[in-house]
Structures are given as C-alpha cells and as structure tokens.
Amino acid sequence: MNAEIIAIGSELLTPYFQDTNSLFLTEKLNHLGVTVDFKTVVGDNREHLTAAARVAVGRASIIIFMGGLGPTEDDLTRECVAAALDREIHRDPTLVTELYKRFAALRRRMPENNERQAEVIDGAVVLPNSRGSAPGQWLEIEHDGAPRMVMLLPGPPHEIKPMFEEQCMPLLRERVPRQCIATRVLKVAMMGESACDERIAPIYQRYADVQTTILAGAGDIQLRLTARADTQEAAQERVDELAGALEDALDDAVYSTAGESLEQIVGYYLQMRGATIAVAESCTGGLLGQRLSSISGSSRYFLGGAIVYSDEMKTLFANVPPMLISQHGAVSREVAAALAEGIREECRATIGVGITGIAGPSGGTDQKPVGLVYHAVADGKRTNVVERHYMGDRDRIRRWATQQALDMVRRAMM
Amino acid sequence: MNAEIIAIGSELLTPYFQDTNSLFLTEKLNHLGVTVDFKTVVGDNREHLTAAARVAVGRASIIIFMGGLGPTEDDLTRECVAAALDREIHRDPTLVTELYKRFAALRRRMPENNERQAEVIDGAVVLPNSRGSAPGQWLEIEHDGAPRMVMLLPGPPHEIKPMFEEQCMPLLRERVPRQCIATRVLKVAMMGESACDERIAPIYQRYADVQTTILAGAGDIQLRLTARADTQEAAQERVDELAGALEDALDDAVYSTAGESLEQIVGYYLQMRGATIAVAESCTGGLLGQRLSSISGSSRYFLGGAIVYSDEMKTLFANVPPMLISQHGAVSREVAAALAEGIREECRATIGVGITGIAGPSGGTDQKPVGLVYHAVADGKRTNVVERHYMGDRDRIRRWATQQALDMVRRAMM
User: Fold this and answer.
1) What is the topology classification, in CATH, of domain B180-256?
2) Roughly how many angstroms between the first and final C-alpha of chain B, as a whole number?
3) Which of A146, A223, B41, B337 counts the highest number of beta carbons within 10 A?
4) What are phi and psi of A402, to 5 degrees?
5) Cα gap A409→A396, rounded to integer Å
6) CB interface of A with B, residues 21-60, below 8 Å
7) Mutant choice from B161, B290, B347, B395 vs A, greatest count of A C-beta within 10 A
C-alpha cells in the first residue's frame, strides 16, 4: 500500500520553515509496511489545495493532510478536501458545543468564526484533539473502485503526533494487510562514508531482501537495516544475520547496535567501570563538555573541566608548562597530552581528555593548516594522542574533533 | 509568476532525509518576485515522476527538478521530463566526449552506462556542472499557450547552488518581469513569541504592503520584513519605516538589525570595549563556551573558562566556597554570583559569567523544579543575577539559559 503526505501552510513555502512531521509519519507508515510515494507542500490557497487533493486521491491509497484546520479564513483544508472528494460539509452540533465549553472554561468569549472548527466532511469520523482545539477527521472512500483512507490532521507537531499514534495507527493496523518488518541500526565512529561503504557493500549486496540505508554525519555513520518477510521471526533473522556480518567486517568501529549516541555509550562504559571524566578543550571551546552533559544523569561520571581557549588558561586550569607551549606551539601533540594529563590530575578524574587544534577559517599556517587537531586521552598509566586533519567548515571540524575524542575514550574503556 | 520545486530521490521519502535545497531556491526565487506555490517530493519511479512532471507543467510557470541526473538506471529525471513534455531525447556528442575526457584525466575507465549523463531533451540548453559530472538542462516551452521555464538540476547542494546562482538566475532575471523587493531582519532576545507579537502586531498590521514573518527559537525571535514596490527606493523606504517603528516598540530587546547572531553581537561589543570574557558553566556544560567560540576570531576576547558540573569543580576552578554551596545549594542565586565573580578573577577577565540550574529531566524538586536556572554576569563593580524558569526539554532549557546569559552580557556592555 502507498501513501501521500500533504503539508498545508503558506509558511512552508517560504525559505524559513520546513515540514518535519512527514518524517515522523513516514517512519510510522513504514512500520506498517506502507511506503510513502509522494510528499506535497501547498499553501493556504483554495484552488491549489483542492487541485492537490484531487491529484492525491488519484495516486495514493492513504492520503494524509496536515494543517489548515484552524478557525481562520486561511484554514481551508476541510472545505477543499470535501470539494475534491465531491462531498458536502456539515457543522457538527456536538463539536460546536464542545468548542463553546472549552472557551467558557478559559473564561473567554469564543469568536463566532471559531465554529468553523466544528465543520465535518460528510461520512467522516471525528478524531478528538487532546492538545488543541482543532479536531482531526478520518474518512474511507472509494475512488474509481479502489479504497482510499483519508486523514485530516492538525499541523503542530505536539498535536499531530499523539493523534496519529493513538487514533490513526489502530485504524490503519486493522485495514493495512499485515506485514512483518524488522529493523536494526548499527552506528560507526570515525570512518569516511566511502571507506565504510567500500568495506560493507560486498556484504549487504548479498542481502537483496534487506534494505540498507547509510546516513553519514561528521565522523558518525548510521547503517539502517530493514527486512520484510512472512513471519516476524524470518524478518528478524535476516536483519540480525546481516547486522552480524557487518559488525564482523567493521569490527570495533561499530560503537552501538541499539540506537544509542556515542556520548551515551561513553557514559555507559564510564558508569560500568565506576570511572569519572574531565575535559580540557581548546579549539572545541566547550562542545565536548556540551555533548557529554547532554545526557541526563551525566553528573554521575562527568565532573566538568576547562575551556582553555587562551594559552594562559591552558596553564591556569590544566597546568600546562608555558615552556611547553612556547617550544611546541599551543597546537601540538605535546600540549594535547599535557592538557589531558593536567586536567585529569586537577579534577582527580579517572580519565582526562585534551583537545587542541585549528578550527579555522583563519589561523592556519603551512605547517599547521586549518583542520589540524590533536586529541589526547590520559588514564594515569598512559596517554594516547591522535593527530587528525579534518576537512570542512569550523562547525564541522569541531564536530569531528569531539567525535574523535569520544571515540578514543570509548576505546580506552573497552 | 509562480514556481513548483520537485525533489527527486527515493531516499527523500524515508524518515531519514529531507530536501533542504528548496529553501535555498525559494529564497532566490522570492528575490526575483517569484512565489513558490508547490513543492513535491517523488521517488526514483518512472510512472510517479512522469505523472508529477505532467501535473507541474499544468500549474506552474517555473518548474525546477532537482536530482535524478546521475548515470544509474535509477536516474530517471531526463527521460521522465521528456516524456511529460512529449519531447524526444538525444545523446549530445560533445557531452559524451567530455565525460570520457573527465574519466581519462582521473585515469579511470568510464562505465558505458555513464553515457546516459550526456542525454539531452530536444530543445534544452545544457548547463555545465563545475562541481560534478551531471550537467543541468534549461528548457523553455509553451503549455496551453502559456510560457514555461523548466530546469533539470543536480541534487547535491554543492552542485545545485552554484549552478542555479551562476547560470539559472541570469536567465530568470532576463525573463521574469522586474520587481523591486527590499528586506530587513530584526532579531530579538529573550521575549516569548506571543508577548512579542502582542506588542508589534498593531504596528505591522498597519503596513499591509510589507510582509512580516515571525520565526521563534529558544529565547530568540527573528522578524523578517519584505516589501515590494515600483522602485527599489520605495520598497526600501517601506521596510525601513516599519523596521524603525518595530525597533522603537521593542526597544533594547532588539539585538541585531543586520542578521548577526547574538554571540556575534556580544563579540562586537567586547572587542569595541577592549574587554575579555570568561565563563563558568554548570547545567549548560560547555554550551555557552561553544557558542562564544563558534565565531571565528573569538580568541581575541574569549579567554575560556570552566565547566563546573560537580560541586568540587565549582570550588576548584571558580573558588566558590564549599560553605556557600552547602548553605544555599548548588542551584542558587548566591552560587551563580560566586561562579561569575570567581571565574572572572581566576581568568583575569573583564567580564565573568556564571550559570547554574536544573536542565532535567531528572534532578528537580518542589523548591527547585526542572527549568530553574540562575544566570550571573560580573564586571568587577557589580554582579547582576537573573532567575528564570524555562519550559521544555533538556536541550531547550540549556539553549534558553545560554541565550539569557549572552543577552545579559550584551546589556552590560551597551
């Protein structure tokens, strides 16, 4: 079965806003075995919206309209969908009463315009909205002899998500032919996308029945595997088999097999070992600390550390000898190591991390170009330093650098 | 004139990828006075793509296809657009030669399949691709007596952007009736969206000819003003007039009138005053440092600071007396002030900033709920502390907190 998702709102046709609900809906639909074949964005325009609705009914079995259900003259979804389906619209007296009650409870007078929100397409089932005033609608129709499921849902993410999950999914589950789908996600640190693909393509190409999607970020790759089969067990077996083969091929570059982020995995390891961590960041300026502390409960293992942007701070907070800096330069293997060792001792942490580099776009030289970063991890017994040359802009270089540092901590704890 | 943008690629119909090129194209088209009326996403499917192209030709004057120009069997844009326009396709011998030359230069054998990239729709102008192997195409046709401009462009952002800007924009400028458009952006810190709108709606509603768009982030609001008129001067006058009226109404909540970020503005002020800054962050864990250091050249005023996630770190790096913490709690007005004053003295900075709070989701109590944050700015003469209660998840609370701290620094330097 296939679906079309139609996002309605003139703001979605400006350079500033983007529909993101469709990603959520697509994931839910895919889990039922429904593929999304079309996505359309259309403005608050009667003619355009009616035309888009007519096109959709002609090409998809499941059609989801999002937005345009508010009380203003601009909210046209109800009437345009009705027109496209050649149906009448009526004002539902129960809904009208509920709207007035809602306003009365807030001790506000309801503008008469608001009654528009009680308009229902003939034959539609009303979907109550627990988070807002615009109810949704569910319709089943026939078009040229083929069945169609049509949904009108509100636009705000916190309204559409519970409505779709709690009310539409059960209806869809009863009507969409049952399919068995299994998924797995592997996450890989610090490999280039093409290097990763080169290593794994010969493997996943042997699994024609498993869909493999590669998503690449800065030093972070997600491999998403999806299989369909007649039984849940058969589907699960196929993704598990491929996941196992990919894990073997990628070895310890795989850091997660259950969807966790790298900072989460590092947190698990640290807690498991009863260890603590402290950081001294130069070019990343706080990004590593921010990532470590983005995990709720990270205070159990993340002590804190220092942002040592200037040379004086490197000495003040991480006891890096000024001589070492003048001798090797602030961006050097030696200073990275001294930062990791110094911050570890200062904070009495199990693990100390140091990062120093040139994030650009200015500040690079021939010997020390933009993108050069040294990362160090010290555990009291040994200090591991890695030199890397990153490509890309300031933001991307800083993301790669923190990813490398987190990956080194992970490997040190393995 | 109106446009439709069609993004092609099955990956854009998964939960993982989203077309972002259309935002860039929309901005460029808007500058010519062209509105985007429809956006469509369609997969690598012959029937679907041809149908989508037919629909687009029926409803838009400018039609931009993105993606599906590669050499594989999945790349169907050329043939499907040709089919929808009832045109033939031919292999361009010059392009074929260029493709072979390209491969020869890389000392690689060209797969024969690759010749597909030299296929050109009859009547199309070839748009050379300086960043990749797939050339674009530009076509002018008539549909039911109305003129249509049709573009086939590559999908990767670093290929489509220069091609559109350098080759399509000049062609469009010659053909789209000239309009005069002026824009202004005002940025506002630490106001709620509805509070801001309440204050300014009576003003911008008087300027029916200026389009006002409000974009709200965590403690950050952008007001985008656009006016069209017969002359550039007239358009500019209208946006400038409204911008002036909005600035008067919002007073010093407006931090930028030329598009700068808050961290950039804070950087300008600090440099202008020859001042330096150091931070001591508890609940934001490095995010404030990360934002300050995200600006290239920030090392001129940002010294660094400390991530004082544990109580011991607050004492170690910012000299907060342990007694003060045990007496008032780590999340308190007193500790925030001590952090700002302590880090300022330790780092010998002009300005010291302290943040302490409860980012959640765990760790809240009745007296100190999740979302409670204290922000302090010390300049040696006085220390200003602000208490705030934020709503939302961990990430959002931390963004609001850093925004508040940056805004306090801005106001201290004004």
Assistant:
1) Alpha-Beta Plaits (3.30.70)
2) 45
3) B41
4) -70, -35
5) 20
6) 23-24, 26-27, 30, 35-43, 45, 48, 51-52, 55, 59
7) B290
* B318 contact A CB<8A: no
Same CATH topology for A2-175 and A262-413: the answer is: no
Chain B touched by A268 (CB under 8 Å) = no
For residue B83, name the pLDDT band (cuts at 50, 70, 90): very high
Residue A230's pLDDT is: 86
| Chain B residue at shortest CA distance from A318 | B317
Q: Which residues of B touch A59 (CB under 8 A)?
A: 48, 51
Q: Answer yes or no: is the ipTM higher than 0.95.
A: no
Residue B188 half-sphere exposure toward CB, CA atoms < 13 A: 25
Strand-pair partners of A82: none
Task: Tell me the DSSP string of A83-112.
Answer: HHTT--EEE-HHHHHHHHHHHHHTT-PPPG
Phi first, then psi, for residue A140 (nearest 5°) are -120, 125
Domain ranges of chain B: 2-175, 180-256, 262-413
What are the backbone angles phi and psi of residue B355, rounded to the nearest 5°? -135, 130
- Which residues of chain A have a CB within 8 Å of the CB of B57? none
Of B12, B41, B286, the CB nearest to A307: B286
Q: How far is B91 from chain A (nearest CA, A)?
A: 30
Instruction: Give the closest residue to A254 by CA, choosing from A264, A263, A269, A243.
Output: A243
Helix (H) or strand (E) holding A178: none
- What tokens appear for B392 in the block? 């939302």
Q: Up-side HSE of residue B141: CA atoms within 13 Å toward CB? A: 22
Q: Rounded to 10 degrees, what is the CA torsion of A102, A103, A104, A106?
A: 90
| Contact yes or no for A317 and B304 at CB 8 A | yes
Count the Cβ atoms, other than its own, within 10 Å of residue A380: 12
Instruction: State whether residue A318 is helix, strand or coil.
Output: helix
Q: Quick check: B296 pLDDT over 90?
A: yes
**Residues in chain A within 8 Å Cβ distance of B24:** 15
Q: Which CATH architecture has domain B2-175?
A: 3-Layer(aba) Sandwich (3.40)
When CB atoms are compared, the residue of B11, B35, B285 closest to A290 is B285
Q: A376-414 pLDDT, tens per residue?
A: 999 999 999 999 999 889 999 999 999 999 999 999 998
| Residue A213 touches partner B, C-beta closer than 8 Å | yes
d(CA A287, CA B398): 13
**Which amino acid, one-letter code, is at A326?**
S
- DSSP for B121-182 reads ETTPEEE--SSSS--EEEEEEEETTEEEEEEEE-SSHHHHHHHIIIIIHHHHHHHSPP-EEE
**B87/B234 Cα distance (integer angstroms):** 44
Give A163's contacts (C-beta < 8 A, 6+ positions apart).
A127, A129, A130, A136, A153, A154
Instruction: Identify the residue whose tokens are 């035309």.
Output: A51
Contact A15 B35 (CB under 8 A): no
What does the pLDDT average to over A297-316?
Answer: 96
CATH of domain A262-413: 3.90.950.20
Ramachandran bin of B152, using left for φ above 0, alpha for ψ from -120 to 50, beta for the remaining angles: beta
The residue in chain B having the minimum alpha-carbon distance to the alpha carbon of residue A47 is B59
- Which of A213, A303, A347 lies at the smallest CB-CB distance from B16? A213
pLDDT band at A215 (very low <50, low <70, confident <90, very high): confident
